Amino acid sequence: MESVFEIIAEPNRRAILSLLISSEQSVGEIERQLRMTQPAVSKHLRVLREAGFVESIVDAQRRLYRLKPGPFQEVDAWLAQFRRFWSAHVDALERHLDRMEHHPSTPRNSTSSKRNTKKTTRPNRERDKGEAK
User: Fold this and answer.
1) Are residues 14 and 56 in the same domain?
2) Same structural domain, 88 and 73
3) Could you say which DSSP state residue 54 is in?
4) How far apart, in whole angstroms, are the C-alpha atoms of residue 4 and residue 76?
């Protein structure tokens, strides 16, 4: 069986999952929105269903697909370690910026000396149009 990450690596499956975030969808609705053939949609839904990403319910004459939380919780748990990593780095950056803000004598930008350089002016063509005779 494919891993959770192999399953969501496929772009059409991710597109189907994105559609199902907002509401339950039938195969026909998914076909129309993603401009895919019915067999292709059914194939991807089967893979997603077997992996536990989606489940189907019967509504009168049609089968509706909706998300199931299980595999997403697995992905979320794996990503948690990276959120902690980035959170620590973002916190360190925030502390650094706070220190810079409290010490205004600290140069913020090494390009500040460039601001004092003489700028070349360009003629104002709209203004000059009426002046030429």
Assistant:
1) yes
2) yes
3) E
4) 11
**Residue pLDDT, tens place only, 97-126:** 888 888 766 555 544 444 444 444 445 544
Residue numbers of the domain that contains 74: 69-102
Helices 27-34 and 11-22 pack at an angle, to 10 degrees, of 120
Residue with the two structure tokens 């959770």: 4
Clarify whether residues 16 and 37 are in a common domain.
yes
Number of domains into which the chain is organized: 2
By three-state DSSP, how is residue 121 classified? coil
Same domain, 11 and 59: yes
CA dihedral 103, 104, 105, 108 (to 10 degrees): 100
> Which tens digits make up the pLDDT trace of 13-44?
999 999 999 999 999 999 999 999 999 999 99
- Structural domain includes residue 63: yes
Q: In which order are the strands placed within the sheet that holds 25-26? A: 25-26, 62-67, 54-59
CA distance 77 to 4: 12
CA 86 to CA 91: how far, in whole Å?
A: 8
Q: Are residue 64 and residue 96 in the same domain, yes or no?
A: no
Whole-structure pTM value: 0.62
